Amino acid sequence: MKLLPALAGVAVFAAGTFVVADDGATLPGTKPLAIEGDLSALMHEAALRDMDRRIADSISLRPHFWRRDPASAETYERSIEANREHFRTIIGVVDPRQPVGMERFGDEENPALVAEAKSYRIFQIRWPALEGVHGEGLLLEPKGKPLGWIVALPDAGQTPEQIAGLAPGVDAGSQFARRLAENGFAVIVPVLIDRSDRGSGDPAIAMTNQPHREWIYRQAFMMGRHIIGYEVQKTLAAVDWIAKRGDGAPIGVAGYGEGGLIASYSAAVDSRIRAALVSGYFRSRQQTWEEPLYRNVWGLLREFGDAEIATLIAPRGLLVEYSDEPKVDGPPAVREGILKCGAPGKLETPPLQEVESEFQRIDTLIPAGFQCRQLVKGAGGSTVPEGSQDAISGFVKLLGADSAAPLSSELPVERRRSFDPVARQLRQVKELENHAQGLVRASGAVRNDFFLHKIQPRSRNEPWTLELRFDQLPIEPVIEAAKDYRRIFWEEVIGKLDEPLPPPNPRSRKIYDEPAWTGYEVVLDVGGEGFSWGILCVPKNLKPGEKRPVVVCQHGRHGLPKEVIEGDKPAYRNFAARLAEQGFITFAPHNLYQKEAYYRTLSRKGNTVKASMFSVILRHHEQILNWLGTLPFVDPRRIGFYGLSYGGETAVRVPPLLSGYCLSICSGDFNDWPRKVASTDDRHSFMYTDEWEMPYFNMGNTFNYAELTYLMFPRPFMVERGYHDGVAPDQWVASEYAKTRRFYDQYGMGDKTRIEFFNGGHTINGQGTFEFLRQQLHWPN
Fold this sequence. Notes:
Helix content is 33%, strand content 19%. The chain is built from 21 helices and 28 strands.
């Protein structure tokens, strides 16, 4: 099988060179097109530019989500409560906190009283936050009555001891916890999860170079939680304890770097905090997709930049300190025996103009004078050291105190003889891992509850369920209710691009001329610079007026359309061409996961505006279905989907949402998805690979693969599974599919679903699936 030679004539389109074909070499009803260059790269680049546009437009679109009413502090609080609640949700602050407590702990070797200075004492402390999760760190307690209480948050690259003056590593002038204690404030200093990788993995499986923050993020994000949310919860648990004391002293939060992020977010979600000091963090977030993965927040930029978050703090006080951000350039270096799977990402200090511009943007969102706030910067627009005298003075004024006194030269002396900050860090990491893994294990029950109670039937007064007595319910209420679940999955998990599609404007050229079929390369418009691309194989024995079924044959990761047609690659076995030889029309589209640098960047950018790679892929498939349905030889009621690997992942994400697909076959991908993405106790998990784009926010609590097949129902659905496919163990696949089979069987529709196990690997088998296609697509007629 050979591609036909390229034809002559040149025209420019987007970033590539297109060659206009001679007359007679196109599919009837399409404009001529021949292409030179890398169409996959052109598609990815167009999609990336489109996502850049969405990010750029996000600022102007944010007012749609806000209804601020600054008539009074009370009315303002009410007017932003929906925004605050949504913000809590996307950063994962959703779990009830544990009963309030604060423990000063120690033993003879490492006493609870860590150090004592002239005006304050330092204790090592821990406090309950969530079930099985504790905050841990230091309490700097004045010897007299404190002027107020402050939670001081170091950067992830610092320890509490360093900003309290107990350990080297932070300049004296930046030891802001000590500075605040010397000025009469009680200071709680939590340890933050750091950027090292000592605990990122399981020695029985593998250790990875994911920073601890990413290690927790990748587990938590899939379960609707976040490393950011966990640390906000620890901060607020400390605030709970302070507030319970009932002395009425003001409460503030102060943080640098990653601690600045946590301080800002904590103040945004909890109005008990009177003021926040944010150092080395505040800036425009329009390039947040370049930051480390553990800062990825689902849909953040649709509603929030740093200026909008500042309005969640208002009318309470805010002080921003323009300090050098911690320098981060990718994950830890790989050492011998460590898996390289940490995500790229960098932190660097923004120019002052960027910080000032974002700070000044607050003035466009709330009235002048509504919030006391200040930007501290150095002479000539330079940065200042974090925790500078000017910043601390301004901050304590926001808490009702006079200007801060200069820092003394007295350093506290550590009394613990064998304190190990590494062991403490690993305890903290393990607690969060255990919490996230508990969520993974409990996710089946959470999904059952989601499906049992969220939707009411349209034709009954009593609730319907997806698990009980299906054989006694008519199908129609389930089909109707599934529309709401499709909306939730598309809008809240995948992300939906709402703009109407343009006319497809098909262009084609003939590239195959085989004995049984003809192949055309086709390009369709999808809006803006974007386009969809694929190969249509049309049998030559079509009769006049005949309409035949179509099988959309989807390649996997790193694949191209031609690979499912020619070359006899072991994974694909030319299955699109073989089906065309059997009389099916086939279409092999290109999905946007061929080039890792492209598609992972697309996912990362998309997440900032509540979109993903599959948001774009869905748009492409909508247009493909629109166009296929117009072809005179296609029966639009009989368009099926069959994909391998990432194409199999597409099979449980795209056809369940697009009713134009009457059938779907998932090959080499069907799985227990929360376990596959987020578990840390099995080598099959993506936690031990570089596929960091796989977690979708809160998907683990809403949709596993069985639930996605519920959205496919009552259309036919099949799984093709090789016993030696390393994607998952057989028991994961079988147990998840058992739910699908039970679902179909309870309606007496067991003939509409099937699983085939075969003695092979990660490949198209093309036996039971071909039979399933013939049966369900009624071909031959």
